[in-house]
TrEMBL record:
Segment forming the signal sequence: none
Domain D-isomer specific 2-hydroxyacid dehydrogenase catalytic: from-to ranges: 6-316
Highest taxon listed in the record's lineage: Bacteria
Name used for this protein in its record: Phosphoglycerate dehydrogenase
One Pfam family from the record: 2-Hacid_dh
Family matches, as InterPro entries: D-2-hydroxyacid_DH, D-isomer_2_OHA_DH_cat_dom, D-isomer_DH_CS, D-isomer_DH_CS1, D-isomer_DH_NAD-bd, NAD(P)-bd_dom_sf
Source organism of the structure: Marispirochaeta aestuarii
One GO MF term: oxidoreductase activity, acting on the CH-OH group of donors, NAD or NADP as acceptor
C-alpha cells in the first residue's frame, strides 16, 4: 500500500514533519496559500496540516482522497468544519499547544500598557530621557482584570494575574457554572458589568457569527476612561473603527492588540500612529516551544485519523469517516 500523503501549505517546525515521516507518511509542501493553489495541491493528498490559509468547501471538494485536516493551533474559523463533517472528513486542532504561550503574551501586553514600555522605549531611543518625568505608569497590583471567556487561555491569564501580579480577577463566561470558576475569580454574569468594572479587559472568546463585532461603541462607552482593552483572540470580535474612535476620544486609555480585523492591517492603519496602543503581528503563539507543540499535535491528529482512531482533539465528529 502506498504511503498516505500529507499536504502542508505553510511550513511548520521540523519536529512536526519528522513526526509524520517517522510514521511513514509522505509530505507534500504546498505551492502557495490561495484557495486556487490548495485546490490544485490537495488533489492527490489524504490529509492537510493546516495553518492560517483558507480551507473552504471548494478545497474539501477538490480533495477526493482527503480524510483529515489537522489544524496547527486552535482556531478553525478558516476551515469549513460543517462541510468537512458532511463529507466524512475529520478536523482536529491542538488546544493544549498554545494556551500558556498566548496567556503569557496577553500579560505582556497588559504590563507594556501599564508601564508605558513601548512608548518610553521609542522616546528614549529618540533622545527623550525626560519622558520619565512626563508620562507615568500604573501599578497592576490591586487593579481589576476582566477576563472575557474563561476557557484554557482565559483561565491561565486569570491565574497568572492573580497569583503573579496581585490583581483582582473578574470573569465572564455564560457557558460555565459558578462552581466551574477558579476560587480566585469573581464570576460576573452580566456582559455590560464586565466592561464597567475592569481596569484591564482581556478578550478570550472565539470568532463566531454571534461574537463578530460584539465588542463595539456601547462596550467602550461603558468602560472606565483609565481602562485598557487587550485582544489576543480574534480581530473579528472587536468593532475596529469603534475602537479607533474610543481611543481617539479618550473613552478608554489604551489597547494591546495581537489580532486585527484584516491581517495584515493596511500600512496607514490608525493604530500605528497611536502612542496608547501596543501592537504585535498576530505572533502571540509563535514561540519556538509553542510552534513545536502546534506542529506535533496537528501531526498527531492526522496520524490518529488516518489509522482509524478517534482523534485526541476532534473539532467535528463525522458519522461516516472516509
Amino acid at each position: 500500500m502506498a504511503a498516505y500523503k500529507v499536504l502542508i501549505p505553510q511550513d511548520i517546525m521540523e519536529e512536526g514533519k519528522a513526526y509524520l515521516r517517522d510514521k511513514g507518511y509522505e509530505i507534500k509542501m504546498g505551492s502557495g496559500i490561495t484557495v486556487e493553489d490548495i485546490v490544485k495541491d490537495v488533489a492527490d493528498c489524504d490529509a492537510i496540516l493546516a495553518r492560517t490559509a483558507p480551507f473552504p468547501a471548494e478545497v474539501l471538494e477538490a480533495g477526493k482522497k482527503l480524510k483529515v485536516i489537522g489544524r496547527h493551533g486552535v482556531g478553525v474559523d478558516n476551515i469549513d468544519v460543517k462541510k468537512a463533517e458532511e463529507m466524512g472528513i475529520w478536523v482536529t486542532n491542538a488546544p493544549e499547544s498554545n494556551s500558556n504561550t498566548v496567556a503569557e503574551h496577553a500579560l505582556g501586553l497588559i504590563i507594556a500598557l501599564a508601564h508605558n514600555i513601548v512608548r518610553s522605549d521609542k522616546a528614549f531611543r529618540a533622545g527623550d530621557f525626560e519622558i520619565r518625568n512626563r508620562v507615568k505608569g500604573s501599578d497592576l497590583e490591586g487593579k481589576v482584570l476582566g477576563v472575557l471567556g474563561m476557557g484554557k487561555i482565559g483561565r491561565l491569564v486569570a491565574q497568572k494575574a492573580y497569583h503573579g501580579l496581585g490583581m483582582k480577577v473578574f470573569g465572564y463566561d455564560p457557558y460555565l457554572k459558578a462552581d466551574e470558576f477558579p476560587q480566585w475569580v469573581t464570576k460576573v454574569d452580566d456582559w455590560d458589568e464586565i466592561f464597567r468594572s475592569s481596569d484591564y479587559l482581556t478578550i478570550h472568546i472565539p470568532a463566531t457569527p454571534k461574537t463578530k463585532n460584539s465588542i463595539g461603541a456601547k462596550e467602550f462607552g461603558l468602560m472606565k476612561k483609565s481602562a485598557c482593552i487587550i485582544n489576543a483572540a480574534r480581530g473579528e470580535v472587536v468593532d475596529e473603527p469603534a475602537l479607533v474612535e474610543a481611543l481617539k476620544k479618550g473613552e478608554i486609555a489604551g489597547a494591546g492588540l495581537d489580532v486585527f480585523a484584516e491581517e495584515p492591517p493596511v500600512k496607514d492603519h490608525p493604530f500605528f500612529s497611536m502612542d496608547n496602543v501596543v501592537v504585535t503581528p498576530h505572533n502571540a503563539a509563535l514561540t519556538t516551544e509553542c510552534m513545536i507543540r502546534m506542529a506535533t499535535h496537528a501531526a498527531q491528529g492526522i496520524d490518529e485519523a488516518l489509522n482509524g482512531k478517534k482523534p485526541t482533539w476532534p473539532v467535528n465528529n463525522p458519522s461516516n469517516p472516509r
